[in-house]
Design brief:
Low-confidence stretches: 1-53, 97-104, 115-126, 413-429
Number of strands: 30
Radius of gyration: 31 Å
Strand content: 25-35%
Mean pLDDT: 78
Shape: elongated
CATH class of the largest domain: Mainly Beta
Largest sheet: 7 strands, antiparallel
Length: about 525
């Protein structure tokens, strides 16, 4: 006999064999749990032989409950409510473009976003790319967006409308309107646009709460020009860093998102926007179930500034920072790999003026813990320029509090590449070998163009420890284990002292071009 519901009311004198006793009791218990009631709430009828039988009324309730739980749960009511707020966005750009059949990326060549999409499947990773390129003419593109107010303010992606000469939106009822760009923010890839002429547009609400991993989400947008498309999935992860910049904090979802979905909303089951879809991982060019959305909290902050003044200003402390890796934490004697390591404070910046030094670890801002370098960038960037902040800093093993006033993050920075590695070495030899590290070094003062501080790397052993950590010829070692070095002997002495102290790795401060960083190198004992 199989374990299935049986209508015992039609068999008043039936006595099941003993081998079914466990199955019947399991069924009764399972049905009572499914109904959300205790077993005792149903009550059992008189015993027939050795088997307890459910009463007719209780059994009918169980069967109804089981039938109801088998019905699929749909999203039609939610979609009917939110879909009218979603728009398709079309742009036109008059420009001269070079023919390149493999490149329709709207991001500048070499930019972090362009590298990300090229690494993860090329331009098809952008779910809102622009149309055919080649020669001089009109470049067109499509994306998505959604109204956030009844008077026509709408959100989309910066890469959808950036540089557009003409922007049009099509609403869910098929009407087309001209739109103007109010402001854009390339750092978060958000844009605010405005449609004039009406004050009764259906609009969506941005969620106040963060979604949980596993929550349902609905993506609504204009994939491949197919406006009004709805797909469903769940929140797969939060806090994703896709290499776009220090403000990366994406929600990962598995609702199918494709080219043309850029700027479209991801709704929760309450009909609120939890994220703005901006990127996909796509080796194939289509959805593979990995998409990235900008969190609603970020959207709120950015959109408010765009609406008020057309641009976004962020707080700035003026430091070059890097993560505290497990090796760096070990070399500094830290119990946890947390905080943001200051590689170099910018000259005349707020941090430098307040006394922040290279090697300091920022552990909190206004008593809010800083877990990593990205969190520091997001926290400081979320504060207004001119704000007074308190930094909690670990300075040479000692806790320290530094107060400073935030500056304003420059809108653009000129990125300078590494120092020319083919420059004249001024007759320098291969330098002196640093045992067990796979490095040859020489005093920087002996190599033309290397400056006067530190020792310059004149050779890197392929496959060695230093090569694995990214060292290259032309790098300048400024400090070893917190001590400034000016010649190979001082490097050797610092390494020997670290080994004597039974350290498994040593922290080295390295300058590449105009920037510096800390590298933790494993060292041999003895």
């Amino acid at each position: 006999m199989t374990d299935r519901p049986v209508d015992f009311s039609s068999l008043p004198s039936y006595t099941p064999p003993r081998r079914s006793l466990l199955s019947v009791r399991k069924l009764a218990l399972m049905a009572s749990v499914v109904a959300g009631l205790g077993v005792a709430a149903y009550g059992f009828g008189p015993a027939l032989g050795n088997v307890d039988i459910l009463t007719t009324a209780a059994h009918a309730q169980v069967n109804n409950t089981l039938r109801n739980t088998q019905q699929p749960v749909g999203f039609a009511d939610i979609v009917e409510h939110v879909k009218p707020s979603v728009i398709s966005v079309s742009v036109k750009i008059n420009e001269k473009v070079t023919s390149n059949d493999s490149d329709d990326s709207p991001f500048p060549p070499g930019s972090p976003m362009e590298r990300f999409f090229r690494r993860f499947g090329g331009p098809d990773g952008i779910p809102g790319g622009r149309g055919p390129r080649g020669g001089r003419g009109m470049v067109t593109g499509q994306g998505s967006g959604f109204f956030i107010s009844a008077d026509g303010f709408a959100v989309t992606n910066n890469h959808v409308v950036s540089g557009a000469d003409k922007v049009e939106v099509t609403t869910d009822d098929g009407k087309t309107y001209a739109a103007k760009v109010i402001g854009t923010d390339a750092r978060t890839d958000l844009a605010l646009i405005k449609v004039d002429g009406r004050s009764d547009f259906p609009f969506a609400k941005l969620s106040e709460a963060q979604p949980r991993i596993g929550d349902w989400v609905l993506a609504v947008g204009n994939p491949f020009g197919l406006g009004g498309t709805v797909t469903a999935g769940i929140v797969s992860a939060r806090g994703r860093d896709i290499g776009n910049g220090p403000y990366d904090d994406f929600i990962q979802i598995d609702a199918p998102v494709n080219k043309g979905n850029s700027g479209g909303p991801a709704f929760n089951v309450d009909g609120e926007v939890v994220g703005v879809n901006t990127a996909i991982y796509s080796p194939s060019g289509g959805s593979v179930g990995i998409a990235f959305s900008i969190p609603a909290a970020t959207v709120k902050s950015v959109v408010k500034q765009l609406q008020d003044k057309g641009s976004v200003s962020r707080g700035w402390i003026g430091v070059q920072i890097q993560p505290v890796t497990a090796e760096i934490a070990d070399s500094l004697g830290l119990k946890k790999a947390e905080g943001a390591l200051v590689a170099e404070p910018q000259a005349n910046g707020p941090a430098a003026k307040a006394g922040v030094e290279s090697g300091d670890i920022i552990t909190a801002v206004n008593d809010k813990p800083v877990h990593d370098a990205r969190e520091l960038a997001r926290t400081v960037g979320g504060l207004a320029p001119g704000s007074a902040v308190k930094l909690s800093v670990l300075h040479k093993g000692q806790d320290k509090t530094i107060n400073l006033t935030l500056g304003e993050l420059p809108n653009s920075k000129e990125a300078r590449g590494p120092a020319d590695q083919d420059q004249d070495r001024g007759g320098a030899t291969r330098g002196i070998e640093v045992p067990k590290l796979g490095l040859n070094v020489a005093p920087a003062s002996s190599v033309a163009g290397a400056g006067k501080e530190g020792v310059v790397v004149t050779g890197v052993e392929p496959g060695g420890i230093a090569a694995e950590r990214g060292f290259k010829e032309g790098d300048v070692i400024l400090e070893v284990a917190g001590k400034a070095v000016a010649n190979p002997n001082e490097v050797r002495d610092a390494l020997a002292e670290a080994r004597k102290d039974n350290k498994s790795s040593v922290l080295i401060r390295v300058r590449s071009g105009d920037g510096s960083r800390f590298v933790a190198l494993p060292i041999g004992r003895g």
